[in-house]
Amino acid sequence: MVISFAVTKIINLLTSGNSFFLILQVRAGLEMALIDAVATSIDSNFSLDEAANLASKYRKQGFNTLNLKVGKNLNADIEVLKAIRVAHPECSFILDANEGYTSSEAIKVLDKLHGN
Q: Which Pfam families would you find in this protein's record (predicted)?
């Protein structure tokens, strides 16, 4: 009975007149959690050729920004990013290191991407 009441209360909250943005926020949160769960269950260690091929594929599909998990191996990350840059020169990166780099390592990655 208590669970039914709580569910009803939540549904009423989510469907009330001023809750449109709350629904969007809840949906976005669930979507991010599901994407993260799927992504972490997949082996995402790519060879340089695989990374370049994926970048080419995404370029052909019209994607100009790539979101990449980095932060486990600095030199390997730099090599993968360079391979992607060759295959998709005009792409922008969103790099998610989850605190896997120190600030000096993060600067090193950016310097290497800009040819320094």
A: MR_MLE_C (PF13378)
Global confidence as pTM: 0.60
Which of these, 90, 66, 60, lies nearest to 80 by C-alpha position?
Answer: 66
User: C-alpha dihedral over 53, 58, 61, 62, to 10 degrees?
Assistant: -130
Is the Cβ–Cβ distance between 77 and 46 less than 8 Å?
A: no
Residue pair 39/66 in contact by the 8 Å Cβ criterion: no
**Short-list 109, 108, 72, CA closest to 93:** 109
Entry field: residues in the chain: 116
pLDDT band at residue 17 using 50, 70 and 90 as cut-offs: low
- Cα distance between residue 34 and residue 64, in whole Å: 23
The per-residue pLDDT for range 60-85, each reduced to its tens digit, is 999 899 888 888 889 999 999 999 99
